[in-house]
Write a structure and sequence with these properties.
The complex is a heterotrimer of chains A (about 400), B (about 300) and C (about 300).
Chain A: H1 2-25, E1 30-35, E2 48-54, E3 66-69, E4 72-74, E5 81-84, E6 89-94, E7 104-113, E8 119-128, H2 139-179, H3 185-192, H4 195-220, H5 223-245, H6 254-280, H7 283-291, H8 296-326, H9 338-349, H10 353-382
Antiparallel strand pairs in A: 1-2, 2-6, 3-4, 3-7, 5-6, 7-8
Helix pairs in contact in A: 2-4, 2-6, 2-9, 2-10, 3-4, 4-6, 5-6, 6-8, 7-8, 8-10, 9-10
Chain B: E1 15-26, E2 29-40, E3 44-48, H1 55-62, E4 70-75, E5 78-81, H2 87-99, E6 100-103, H3 115-127, H4 131-144, H5 160-172, E7 178-182, H6 190-205, E8 209-213, H7 217-223, E9 226-231, E10 234-239, H8 241-246, H9 251-264, H10 266-272, H11 282-299
Parallel strand pairs in B: 3-8, 3-9, 6-7, 7-8
Antiparallel strand pairs in B: 1-2, 1-4, 4-5, 9-10
Helix pairs in contact in B: 3-4, 3-5, 4-5, 5-6, 9-10
Chain C: H1 3-18, H2 34-42, H3 49-56, E1 58-62, E2 72-73, E3 80-81, H4 83-95, E4 98-102, H5 109-115, E5 125-131, H6 134-139, E6 140-156, H7 165-168, E7 172-176, H8 180-188, E8 192-196, H9 203-207, E9 213-217, H10 218-226, E10 231-233, E11 239-248, H11 252-267, H12 270-278, H13 295-303
Parallel strand pairs in C: 1-4, 1-5, 7-8, 7-9
Antiparallel strand pairs in C: 2-3, 5-11, 6-9, 6-10, 6-11
Helix pairs in contact in C: 4-11, 4-12, 8-13
Classes of the chains: A alpha+beta (about 400), B alpha/beta (about 300), C alpha/beta (about 300).
The structure holds adenosine-5'-diphosphate and magnesium ion.
Adenosine-5'-diphosphate (ADP) binds near residues 29, 49, 53, 55 and 56 of chain B.
Chain lengths: ~400, ~300, ~300
Amino acid sequence: MKKLVLTILALVLVLGAMAPAASAAGKLPEVTQGSPYDGMAYEWGVTAVQVYYMPGSSPVDPLKCELYVNGERVTPLGDPVDSQLAQGASLQFNLPEDFQPPKGELEFRAVLVTKAGDEVSYDWTYTYGGQKRKPLIDFALMRDWFTFIAQGALVTIELTVLSILFATLLALLGALGRLSKSTSAREAWTKYRSWTYMVGWVGRMVPYGIATFYTSLFRGTPLLLQIIFIYLAIPGFNNYAYGAWGFKIPEPGPFASAAVALSLNYGAYLTEVWRAGIQAVPKGQTEAAWALGMTGMQTWRRITLPQAFKIVIPAIGNDFIALIKDTSLASTIALPELLQKARLVGGRTYDFLSPLLVAAAVYWALTIFFSFWQARLERRLERDTARG
Amino acid sequence: MMATEPRETGAADDVLVRVEGLHKSFGKLHVLKGVDFAVRRGEVVVVIGPSGSGKSTLLRCLNFLEEPQKGVITIGGVSVTCGGRGKAHKRAVRDVRLKCGMVFQEFNLFPHKSVTENVIEAPMLVKGLSKEAATERAFALLAKVGLSDRADYFPSQISGGQKQRVAIARALAMDPELMLFDEPTSALDPELIGEVLGVMKDLAQEGMTMIVVSHEMGFARDVADRVIFMDGGYFVEQGPPSEVFFHPREDRTRQFLRHILPEQEPEHAAELGITGEAEEGASEEEAQGEEAAEEAPAGGSPGA
Amino acid sequence: MLLVPTVLLALAFGLVACGGDEGDEGGTAEGQTAAEKAASILGHEPAGLAKIIVDRGYLVVANDPNYAPQSSINKETGELEGFDVDVAKLVGEALGLEIRFENPKWDSVIPGLQAGAETGSKWNVSIGSMTVTPDRAKAVDFTDPYYYAQGQMLVRQGSPKITTIEELKGKTIGVGAQTTYQYFLDAVGGVNIRSYDTDLDAFPVLENGGLDGVMTADLTASEAISSGKPFELSGKPFYYEPLAFAIAKDQPDLLALLNYSIKWMRDNGKLTEASKKWYHGFDVTAEPASGVPSYDEVMAQLQS
Ligand SMILES: Nc1ncnc2c1ncn2[C@@H]1O[C@H](COP(=O)(O)OP(=O)(O)O)[C@@H](O)[C@H]1O
Ligand SMILES: [Mg+2]
């Protein structure tokens, strides 16, 4: 009997001792990280403090949770927000508008209280830079990311220069094509009334036709479309060609795609510029050269082209500047040029204004730089403005 | 056809330029209606005629700046049958061009090149002269036209008269056998005309063969061996200046001179009785003139 | 029609641009080449795209550095960093391949995968937190999931939460174009959807009150809050989504190799390690506990 009593007593004791242990055995929330933390990719914006935790067996009661900064309790703006994440959860304390912590090391303490009444507290520190809310224009950010963004300027310049070179070449060919038609079919027929002449005339129409088709097509479709088309259509073509015929052509990456599209597009515009420029060289110049015994090619190279060049420089300069800016369209195919880099920084820092201002400034500087050289070139050629 | 040869002088090889049956039309506009003529070496021919009569076209046909439809042009032994195509034709055309120097009314200097560069450009490119050789020759020519001090100027920086003298030097730099002048002084202010005519006179005196379209009577009278009056696509009348100017046989020549002489040579105009009044037998000779014009290319040998 | 000139110029540029692209042979620490390693993993010689990749020794990974903490750029180095980037490097380690990153826009990832199916050009695999969806599975093949995320609503601090499908109706919600969030909202119907190049582009608009909410991955949303955006998570997520690598269709060997690499990094704990490093100490690589439906379940429910 005594034995029984003792046993029961022991049982009660053990159970009694175990009772709190049993309630404690219900898993407690486990905090994994508090934000802001040192090493964060961005300045803390002082709008919220987040506590990441693995929920325990009893859910957290946000209304009872508390936040302390440097030992002082912070009354959050509104109720703390508890959210379930893919794994774990986050508790978010929104901070009051007038909340301004001191600069330097901050000691945070979050106290999580479960519906069952259990408390878990978590301490962490964060070194605060003293900047409450991002300034409108964040010069620190601009400084930090300037090199990164400016590297994009190199790509932009490279793309511009390459494209203008190829565009000019294309434009010259295009202009020659456009100028190769001297007479209409009716005129040619009434003038010569010869079938053999007409066959030759048709032959001479071919470059004209190609050039006309080219300028019409590339001036008639959006540059952005052309860039995307080249970037995504050639691989598609290759894919088909490789499967069907077993070969592929080199595939342009983002840079080459943009360069090809810009060259073709600006080549089409510059074709018309060159055509007008070449036509603006007085006929007498060619005649004088011919009369001196120069061949067509010599006349073209030494007489017509240099004079046409002088005429088209202002227009080319304008297109050049437009091209500098249009390289930004390549950001749509993720070429890491100026705009794309600025956007990347925006994505990283959640601040688009400042990096975009940096990009704008660089674009502007580039165009001013090129305008300056254009003006100098024009002045250099100015000495022989008047007709000989 | 050989009968077209003016004056009795010399054998066939004395002839530098021979043009036979030259036809040129622009579309429906028939500008040269079968022109025949020849120019001896060293001869200075002045072509006059009303505006639009085809003087420029004639000159431009001679070095194929205009391609005539029909006819044969022979210059310095190179013969081109007009209307041809192909490589051989093109080469012949260039050979002809190399024999001719041309001076334009509008100068047509290359504005992007300095005076010297204008002169050395073609010799270097076409004849393959070294820059030094070409420049040396250019300086000599510029000295000859009196422009040594303008060698480094650009065309925009010199006067019209100077430009035209550069143009002459530029043409001479190619050592042409024949010089063509298309109204070289028409675009010049009156006070600048003299300097250009002076250079041309010198050139003529050195024995250069020249065909000059010009209405400068003084120049024609002093320098020309022959004056051709052109109208309506034909040579209406040709002969020594004294004949054509002061004893024109054709009424159309007379009518044309009536516009020109009183201004330039008032005393001779008076001598001729040309005072701007209508003259005797106009209507009668009008019809005859038309006929004469038809015959002119073939038969006209006014000096004989 | 753009093709002809395009192809010509592309040839010119392609030769320049692709000239230096010949990768050196990929080798592992044990001196085993990537090809040998692949053969031993597969139990046979790799074929198709897998062969092209192991032969040349590098794998081109598509990855958008606009999604911290999955992938973004490091301020000091400008290099890519993040969970997806670490995972890609682990793939390289597992297969003995060099990893090269391309950063196409999200909506060209799948076209690029398809485009490179035969030739291995563009990019070979997307390691960019792509949700496995039946629609996408028609265009690409997915590996086993490597982690899980949730479709979360992000709202301005203090504005009403949006946690039920009914609450979504009539709201203006920003999403990244061609994301599951967009597909989900499309299926819900009656939602005013604004799609942006990336989810991030929607944040400034939300901040200024131009949107009622932005739907994105829970951890992307939480990251925005940490950075000081005055947002809050809208509580309950709508669904969880398994995320996997995507490759061109019908490449069983490549798929097997990639699945091997995922298993490899799961088994040796490196995947979890990477997760804890980037996701606040969480292991997001395990399927979430019950309570939230999967994307497929939600969509099936919405479409019925
Ligand atoms: N390139 C051309 N095309 C059409 N008509 C022309 C051309 N050149 C000259 N003409 C015409 O031919 C005629 C003769 O011109 P031109 O030889 O310049 O006359 P001139 O020099 O005697 O004044 C004029 O009626 C002129 O309008
Ligand atoms: Mg004339």
